């Protein structure tokens, strides 16, 4: 297959983002990986783009230099936890900049070009916590905003050959689980009896980027291991 499909994947140096980048590369995509951390992917079709995604102006400038892409996958994320009265404003601002503002700055540049081309895919990585969870109000708020963004963008471009979806995992086996900032907020293991694997998320993202998923848009697709069965 010719290597003419270009995807931008944020958070590509670890966890979910790295799994997605590696999956797409294996399927013949050319991938530009955005992360502040050093690149963890080695592949002839992978280009590392060092960038602080919390710097909105830098994000937009980088997107304009990048040129057209056929897929945007925003997987970068950070989790800060804390109850009311002990949730630093800086933590809330960081999560908003990374989860919401960075996605917006990228989409403002890249999605109109997809519309002009008559084809494109956008997948934002959300979280089941978007439904609300004690001690994670600011994280939940940003992830809920991601869903609202995706549905709004999908409504704008639904007839233009561009799809926009969210993939929302339950607790996933990534290095984020070992972050000292969440030492008092242990993950809840889904009913299947284990954490979700990054490769499982990458598989769904890959499908959403494929021609077979052209009729799926504006959706929040959950990989929850049964966590939503009692909803």
Walkthrough of the structure:
With 231 residues, this protein is α/β, with parallel strands linked by helices. 36% of the residues lie in helices and 16% in strands. The chain contains five helices and seven strands; from the N terminus they run βαββαβαβαβαβ. It has a seven-stranded parallel sheet, with helices on both faces. Strand 1, helix 1 and strand 2 (30-35) form a beta-alpha-beta unit. The model has no long low-confidence stretch (mean pLDDT 92).
In short:
The protein has 231 residues and is an alpha/beta fold. The protein has 5 helices and 7 strands.
Number of strands: 7
Strand order of the largest sheet: 3-2-1-4-5-6-7
Encode the helix/strand succession as letters.
Answer: EHEEHEHEHEHE
Share in β-strands: 15-25%
The radius of gyration is 17 Å
Estimate the mean pLDDT confidence: 92
Query: Low-confidence spans: pLDDT under 50, at least 5 residues?
Result: none
Shape: globular
Biggest sheet statistics: 7 strands, parallel
Secondary-structure-based class equals alpha/beta
How far apart are the termini?
A: 42 Å
Number of helices: 5
Helix content: 25-40%
Write the layout of secondary structure elements.
Layout (H helix, E strand, L loop, with lengths): L5 E5 L4 H12 L3 E6 L10 E5 L5 H11 L4 E4 L14 H29 L2 E6 L11 H21 L4 E8 L28 H11 L11 E4 L8
Parallel strand pairs: 1-2, 1-4, 2-3, 4-5, 5-6, 6-7
